[in-house]
Amino acid sequence: MAKIDVSEVQGEVNYEAAMKEFGIEPIDKYLKKMKDLPAMYRRGIVFGQRDFAQIFEAIQNKKPFAVLTGFNPSGPLHLGNLLFLKQALFFQKMGADVFIPISNDETYVFRKTDSLEKATQNVTELVLPDIIALGFDAKRTKIFISTKEPRVYELAVKLSAKTTFSTIKAIFGFTNETNPGQIFYTIVQSAHILFPQLEEFGGPKPVVVPIGIDQDPYMRLVRDMADKTGFVKPSSTYHKFMPGLQGGKMSGSKPETCIYLNDELSKIKKKIMGAFSGGAATLKEHKEKGGNPDIDVACQYLYFMFEEDDNKIKHILDAYRQGLLSSGDVKNMLAEKVEKFLKDHQHKREKAKKDIEKFML
């Protein structure tokens, strides 16, 4: 079984076993009743949920609810970050207000940058233009920088009295080497998640947080504190990890594992052609025995987000499995689609820079 905690994921994740370990329920029963689902929901990429019933009920009855997804500004966004943002866009279309905390404090206390000022600078230079370029509605999107929003600190102080260090240590595994900022950040993260329920945003209501299963400890902590402070327990959805270019987990701090949203277009194809392949050792052997699309990075990227047509993706994966399509074939397909997406996105990104203030709290 893979090692899964908030700092890292090691090994191949068995999602079914992880669901049992963390007490996460399948999301299928709700998705079957919903229409116009994006590919990540139709294909089981979003696989689990906690307390999603209240979100489903809000959608069905057009009641107020919110979606929250945050980012740490240690560097530019990459393709894996789109899994969070596309879910937030979907929920916004379903009626949610979107809240996006930018955790410059997390970036600094976990030593992902050497200064808080650098982390804050990265927000406007590397993060916000990419988020805005994806098409969020400015009237229903609230972005804030953690250390610049005093209501976060005020809420965090109130929440800090509703838990104990032993509880936080048990959940996160902190040691004597942990700096106090990392310990307090667990409370700040809880404040981010409960932030949409403050009175100035309409008061207590359902909030859904799309996360990877490695971030579930934060949800367990905040749900316990919500109970003690009069907030509605937040819900969560869980999606599979998009593989890194060389296999394993994608990480923004490891350039060799990912394609950044601000990568030069001229570099995209080279990155993709060098990605991990699920094909046989030789083209002749591949044609005879076929390949494994479940571990092939190009196949998986097409499956996760770059081929929306379910019939087409089924044909591609089946043909690869039978050896009718080679690794080079699927890599070329992916490169064309990623280049097209990034060319359009980067154009929108430049235009989005002048709209940043419209989205900021």
Keywords:
globular; 9 strands; alpha/beta; two-stranded antiparallel sheet; Rossmann fold; Tyrosyl-Transfer RNA Synthetase; 361 residues; seven-stranded mixed beta sheet; 2 domains; 10% strand
Radius of gyration (Å): 21 Å
> Which homologous superfamily in CATH is the superfamily of the largest domain?
HUPs
* Order of strands, widest sheet: 3-4-9-8-5-6-7
Q: How does the helix and strand content classify structurally?
A: alpha/beta
Task: Describe the sheet with the most strands.
Answer: 7 strands, mixed
Q: Taking all residues together, what is the mean pLDDT?
A: 95
Helicity, in percent?
40-55%
Q: How many structural domains does the protein architecture include?
A: 2
How much β-strand is present in the residues?
Answer: 5-15%
Distance from N terminus to C terminus (CA atoms, Å) equals 42 Å
Low-confidence stretches: none
CATH topology of the largest domain: Rossmann fold
| Helical run tally | 17
Q: What is the H/E order?
A: EEHEHHEHEHEHHEHHHEHEHHHHHH
Oligomer: single chain
CATH architecture of the largest domain: 3-Layer(aba) Sandwich
Fold and architecture overview:
The chain contains 17 helices and 9 strands. The protein has 361 residues and is an alpha/beta fold. It has 2 domains: 3-245, Rossmann fold, CATH 3.40.50; 263-350, Orthogonal Bundle (Tyrosyl-Transfer RNA Synthetase), CATH 1.10.240. The strands form 2 sheets. Strands 3-4-9-8-5-6-7 form a 7-stranded mixed β-sheet, sandwiched between helices. A two-stranded antiparallel ribbon has the order 1-2. Strand 5, helix 5 (82-93) and strand 6 (97-102) form a beta-alpha-beta unit. It is globular, with a radius of gyration of 21 Å.
